[in-house]
Each structure stands twice: as C-alpha cells, then as structure tokens.
Design goal:
The protein is an alpha/beta fold and about 500 residues long. It has 17 helices and 17 strands. It has an eight-stranded parallel β-sheet with strand order 12-7-6-17-16-15-14-13. A five-stranded mixed β-sheet has the order 1-5-3-4-2, covered by helices on one side. Helix 2 runs parallel beside helix 4 and helix 6 crosses helix 9. The longest helix is centred in the last third of the chain and has 21 residues. It binds acetamide and zinc ion. The site of acetamide has 4 residues, from loops. The site of zinc ion has 8 residues, from helix 8.
C-alpha cells in the first residue's frame, strides 16, 4: 500500500485506487461541520473536492500541499475525513531572550502552519527584554528592550539581544498568523520575571529601585509589588493595549518561578497580606493573579497561567493551567474540580532541551494524560515551548523545532488509534526534503531517533554549552532561590 507522507497523520484515510489527472480542478465548499476545524478531502481522477469550515478548508489544503510534496502532480485517489484530537495545538516562541525580527517570526508561522498548529503563544516579556510597544509606558521598550553584552553559558554575545515589536509589527504578524488559522496568544509575566519591566518602571517594584535588564539566565527576585495599587493599575493598562492588539480569547499571564524574597520584606506586600488575612506570599500571588484574571474576564478573556500559580488557595477552574513541571497533586485536584490544562511537560515538549533528552520517539510515545488525570477531556491541548537562552538565530530555532514540533503536532491532532509512531520517520521524509529546498534545516536524521552513543555525545555538548563558570554562579543563585522557597513552602521542586 502506498504510504502517505503526512504529518500529522489524518484520522481517517481511504485510498480509492488510481491517480488523479494532472492539473485537475479543485472545488472548495465552505460549510459548518459537526466538529470545528474538520474537513473532508476527496481526490478522484477528475476533481479534488474539499469541504469544511474555514479552518478545515485551510487544513485540507495543508494536507494537499504535503501530498504534493510526496507525489508532485500525480496524486493518488483517496478520501480523507479529518478533525483534530485537541482544539489547542500550540508552539511557544520566546522573543525575550533572543529577539528575532518579524520576517523570521513569519517564517516560523509558515512552518508551524504546515503541521496544523493553531496557537502561537508569544512570550514577549521576561527578565531579559520587554518586546512589545506599549503607548502608556514608552520606557518599557525604550529601556526594557535593550541589554548590552549577554551570556547564557557558551552563548556569549551581542547578537539579537535588543529590539522590540512595534504595534504595527504586531498587527502585521497577528494578521499573517490569522491567514494561517493561528491565534496569537501574548504572555505578560506576572508577578515574576520582571527585571526588564522594573528596569523601566522601578516604582512598581517593592523597593522602587532601578534594576538591570537581565543579561544572563536564571531565576531573579525582581517581582512586581503586589501590595501597591499602582502595580495593578500598571498591569491593567498594559493588558488593555494587549487586548487591542491580540483579538483572541486567551491571554497568558505567566505566574511561574516567582521567588517571593522581596515580598517578604516589603511593607506594602506585608500590609496587603495582613489586610486580606492571607496565609502567606503564595496566597498573595494568587490574590494578585486572580485580580488580574478578574479584569480579563470582564473583558471576555480567559487567563492561562503556568502551574506554579496553583500554589496557595484552590485556584478557580476558569483559569487554564499550562503544565510544565511539578505541582502534580495540585494539578490533579484542579482537574478533579473540572479545570482544564495544556500539556507542555518539560519531560517531553521543551524544544530548547537537547535531542539527547527528548527525541522524536519520546515525544510520539509521551503519555499525555498521566495517571493523575483521569479524563482526556481535561486536556484542551498540547504545546511545545521554545525558550531561547541558547537559541539565538532562526537556523537554530528550526534545528530545535524540526522534526520535534511536527511530532508534537501529531500527538495534538491524531488520535492514538489512527497513527503509527514507527513510520513517522518515513512519513516526514518528503516534508523534510521540501523544507530543505527552502533552506529550512531541522536536526540531522540521526538525531530524530537518537542512538545511545550519539545521545551521550549530544548531552556532553549540551553540558559544555550550559555549565560555564559564569553560568554555574547563575545556577547556584537559582538553587538558593529554590531552596529558600522549598524551606518555606515545601515545594516539590
Ligand atoms: C518555565 O519554563 N519557566 C515555564
Ligand atoms: Zn511589595
């Protein structure tokens, strides 16, 4: 039987025999389908017929495009009935650690759209750079988008350290993504990872002191002050402008790795904590995050947060939790109460990690709904984050993404019964050739299903890149922060 080189593999394929004539007509029939994003594609000798909703028609064309990569003009006659396993199939781009211009972001959109990814989670704000123009607070980009020399292990340079997206750029990218059926979800980090924000507006920090835009990686204790009313107003004004730029339902408000050291000694934070009768600083984080979420809700938006935000009281289930690491019992409880999650486990989906840790095989076999999540309905989808501390240009981005992102896309689109993990390599071949012709190079084939020997070498190289003397100091600092949090809260991490 002809093997179709399709990724993600469609959920139902019937080969009807024979081949279509070259240059046959394509008929598109846009209509509502029983499921969103569903499509039907029939290739017969004399006609290609497509039906589906708007997204479905787009996906049918992506399937057709992949078939053309394999067969050229001599397409096999077939019928495909297809719809996604999950409604959320995401890719996260970190533009803070390394800034790539809008042309590069568009190239990334072209690539992720090929695999029916429908969410671009855009990490625009972090310690190392604030990358979106905000009219109300111009210094966020005048100051917060610039850093000097920076180092992330062996990545020690000036390249792509500075820059930001103007509102015009963002509108252009959002429109471009929209043409590819991709919703762009911005992330504003609250309350941690705020060095760039506090470099520009120290008055919303606890001590009111100017800090540096971070020039290395790690966890910092530069948090927005939860005790000052002006912090909340500051955040909501940024959100107002983000809502104007990003018209979609979801906004990510961060919530990870917020080391509360400064909150513990801040008179404003401590006053607020007592006033509200809160148990500790985790509860204060939740109070602040819930306040921001309440603001978003009023505007018809859903807030996504990293799982760290579950610590404290029981988080209401109208948040969406993005799972990345730890807090398993809290996630289990959240799900039991009816909460929804996005699966982005560091144990499989972190694209900045080396192939030695997560190769294609691991991603394809990753169990999305581990024992503590009883029902798949709790998972709205999957997402691969690409953190860019050590990813400083588009070539490296593609190296880290391809073909691991397509493997994740398959987990997000194709039900287990319809896919065969074993032939992924073969099915990806024509796509890989096509991308190479466009000068888009993923990792070499030997890395896709990495051998033990190569994995060992890859891991050594990764360690050499990460554990430089300067970085060891970073990790020690990070370790101290974690230890402090653990000593106080007994965190899992
Ligand atoms: C994360 O990787 N800090 C969410
Ligand atoms: Zn404070």
């Amino acid at each position: 039987m002809t093997k179709l080189h399709l990724v993600p593999y469609p959920n139902k394929v019937i080969l009807t025999g024979g081949f279509a004539l070259p240059d046959i007509t394509i008929t598109e029939n846009e209509k509502e389908m029983p499921k969103r994003e569903a499509y039907f594609l029939r290739i017969s000798e004399k006609e290609i017929y497509i039906e589906g909703d708007k997204a479905g028609i787009f996906y049918a064309n992506q399937t057709l495009h992949q078939l053309q990569m394999q067969f050229g003009k001599e397409l096999p006659c077939l019928e495909i009935e297809d719809s996604p396993r999950f409604s959320y199939r995401g890719f996260m781009l970190d533009s803070s650690r390394h800034f790539l211009p809008k042309e590069d972001v568009k190239k990334m959109i072209d690539v992720i759209a090929l695999f029916k990814i429908n969410k671009l989670h855009w990490h625009l704000i972090d310690d190392q750079g604030f990358r979106v123009e905000i009219d109300a607070f111009p210094k966020l980009t005048e100051i917060g988008a610039y850093r000097g020399r920076s180092h992330f292990g062996l990545v020690d340079e000036y390249k792509n350290n500075s820059g930001y997206f103007t509102k015009e750029d963002i509108r252009e990218i959002v429109a471009y993504a929209g043409e590819h059926m991709i919703d762009v979800i911005p992330e504003i980090e609250i309350p941690g990872h705020e060095s760039a924000m506090l470099a520009a507006y120290p008055e919303v920090g606890c001590e009111g002191k100017k800090v540096q835009v971070a020039t290395c990686g790690g966890i910092f204790d530069n948090l927005i002050c939860a005790g000052k009313e002006e912090s909340f107003v500051f955040v909501t004004k940024i959100i107002d402008e983000l809502i104007e730029l990003f018209p979609y339902e979801m906004i990510h408000i961060g919530g990870d790795e917020a080391c509360k050291r400064r909150w513990r000694s801040c008179p404003d934070c401590q006053k607020k904590l007592k006033e509200l009768g809160l148990k500790d600083e985790n509860a204060l984080q939740q109070w602040f995050v819930k306040r921001v979420q309440g603001y978003l809700k009023q505007k018809g938006k859903t807030a996504i947060v990293w799982n760290d935000s579950l610590r404290g009281e029981k988080l209401p289930t109208d948040f969406v939790i993005q799972m990345w690491m730890g807090d398993k019992e809290l996630v289990a409880d959240f799900v039991k109460r009816g909460g929804k999650i996005i699966q982005s486990s560091t144990e499989s989906f972190y694209l900045d990690y080396p192939y030695a840790m997560w190769d294609v095989d691991k991603i394809l076999h990753y169990e999305l709904c581990p024992e503590f999540i009883e029902k798949e309905e709790a998972v709205i989808g999957v997402e691969c984050p690409l953190w860019t501390e050590r990813v400083c240009d588009l070539d490296r981005e593609f190296y880290q993404m391809l073909p691991r992102l397509p493997a994740m896309a398959e987990c997000g689109w194709t039900i287990k019964e319809a896919r065969s993990n074993e032939d992924f390599k073969e099915r990806y071949q024509s796509i890989d050739n096509y991308l190479k012709q466009k000068d888009i190079f993923g990792a070499p084939e030997a890395y896709w299903y990495i051998s033990d020997e190569l994995a060992e070498r890859d891991m050594e190289e990764h360690k050499r890149m990460v554990y430089t003397p300067e970085n060891i100091a970073e990790f020690e600092r990070e370790g101290e922060m974690m230890a402090l949090e653990r000593a106080i809260y007994g965190d899992e991490r």
